[in-house]
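User: Quick one: structure for sequence A, then sequence B.

Assistant: Sequence A:
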Amino acid sequence: MVSFLMQTKKTIADIENSERYLMNTYARQPVILRKGHGIKVWDSDGNEYLDFVGGIAVNVLGHCHRRVVVAIQKQAQRLLHVSNLYHIEPQIKLAKLLCSNSFADKVFFCNSGAEANEAAIKLARKYAKEHMSPDRYEIITALSSFHGRTLATLTATGQEKFQKGFEPLMPGFKYVPFNDINALEAAVNQHTCAIMLEPVQGEGGIKIPSGDYLAKVREICDKHSLLLIMDEVQTGMGRSGKLFAYEHYGIKPDIMTLAKGLGGGAPIGAMLSTEKVASAFQPGNHASTFGGNPLVCAAAIATLETILEDGFILDHTNRMGRYFMERLNHLKDYYPERIIDARGLGLLVGLEINIDGTSVVKSCLAKGMLINCTAGNVLRFTPPLIVEEKEIDLLIDVLEEVLGK
């Protein structure tokens, strides 16, 4: 068990310096994580944890996966950065890999999920003005969604708590309840150019659509000549048990955004689209200095090739996801007075409880388990896709003990 009373003077001093010099934008846990391997991480005092946060769905292959580390090392010795004014070899290879394994024909690289969604919003609007009408600019998103922290993506996010204090918000967005197809169709008007959704709402509390919801959304888009934007920042890169979550629903989007797991820990985002939609962007319309630089593209290539190599990762993700849900549902039966629901797709898993999740996160931390809480009372689990049954069992044991108290 971790005891914060046992922290060294240096760790305490480092945390004090963190609080002194870093802006107060995160509710950080009182530990300093120093190294990691696989699903395990260690703090500055040598305490070991099982990481069921995974950098918030980032470390899909675990910490310091050898293939990713070697790719970064080799690329760092060759070329760190050049401008996108030139062709970049790893970027070309990564773009081809992504397009060859998705619906897309073209890719734009950036640095984060918010930037990818910002690019998607700009592309949708520009395409609409060129191919629909100058009045088509509005994008419909879902309540409880999360699309980023820039002003545009913050406005696209259907959660008022994230928007408060940053008004006036950008015009051109409309919200409807998630998984309500009638409300969505009713919201379409002469100004609508696109519908932007997460296949599973991660930050919104691991909310999963009904089986035919996204197919009906696609039908609405086709009926009204709208673009369908899939925000797969959190669900992409095998997290759902398929390479991209849209594959579960038998549809294809017009635009898709990626980040988080794409670089296996390196900061990279991507916006993918069909050739037709991508043609709306011309030189000077959009750019990113660091977007798709050689170093992060090398990391992303290693990550994507590992996932694709023999299907092991995706098969394993599905098996572990099913096992995780079985264990959580058993826990729900054991503590019906504490647990409202267990839900998930692949290894994007949530446990909704009827108490504040913050205290549960802290208690799990003290017992060597890193977990996360979103939407106030939903425990979110996004471990590396290499997690094993024995590690899930250890987490369940800790959750049983914590919820029992």
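Sequence B:
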Amino acid sequence: MGSLLLAVIYLIFISLGLPDSLLGSGWPKMQMVFGVPSSYAGYVSMTISFMTIISALLSPRMIRRFHTKWIVISSIALTISGLIGFSFSRQYWMLFVFAIPYGLGAGAIDASVNHYVANNYSGAVMNFLHCFYGIGAVISPYIMSLALKYAGWNEGYRWTSFVQMGILAVVILSLPLWKKNGSYTDEDNRNSAGIRETLKEPGVVLTLIAFFAYCAGEATCFLWTPSYFAATKTGLTDERIASFGSLIFGGLMLGRLISGFISNRIGDKRLIRTGVFVECAGILMLLMPTANYWIAVIGFVVIGTGMGPVYPAIQHMAPTNFGKRYSAAVIGLQMASAYVGSTFMPMVFGHLQQNIGIGIMPVYLIVFAVLNIGMLEMAYSKCRKTNF
């Protein structure tokens, strides 16, 4: 029963990853259809992320009141409605209307499932879980690429919604598996701390800044990687450019797959430090003065590989660093902070690249990588002083 439930949880994270790379992959063509500047993708992305922040901030209260399975079902249903809405959008403003359910569907499911896994499974499971997120995020650029080739960008969103409907059906069928699995009980959920109390815990705010920095870099790659190739490389078809939206997600998947095998041996902190080092190596590859687009292709895969273990490792450490009483609120706050980075920083980059040039992207990414690891090291220090 436990193994079947874990398989369903992995499938849920495929569902979570599916919508995240569609906008970046489809935007070069969507921009032309809507007749808006390239930077306008940032406003749509910001709206989606803003709704996700609201959902993540509500997640501690939802976790106290509802079982994870009901949060998952309602969240996937919201995402499906957003995807279908995008597929029927004929004017730019319509994207903002359907960005509301699109974003609301992401925050609560992300926080609740991460909380469930962090309290019931090992670090290896957490990394494999986020590897499956990468599978979903890798699949959708190819769905969009096929749609651009044979139908249109609208179909990319519609076809993805059909996949989500299938996953939702599996989750509904799995309801009996969610009975009393794991060591974290409903009573633990009811006794968990609130957001205000949690913010006073040493190290919590520093991890929130770190999450902000991590997702600022990650979301910038999600949204602007295809546009980076479109602007800096020549001789690439629309379909090839759209498919490059999967590079960062492929790297994330690879990094989390590797981490799943080694995390129980080397621990979360070493995983994070190694990951940020690899990420910076990939960023430096983008700075190499060459017209060969394959160097940049490899660079983005390396960046994603380095980023891979950072997110799941920080989430998995929450119960250890702050205790089970605070873990739900910590993870919810981390998710909200992460999506603040996802909301605003791709938009900021959109304006920077419009005025300076998209070649500034590697510098932009390395600033946030350094901020991420710096804040985490400070947080570790405060947690040690508190716990030992």
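The two ends are 38 Å apart (CA to CA). The chain has 17 helices and no strands.

User: Thanks, that's what I needed.
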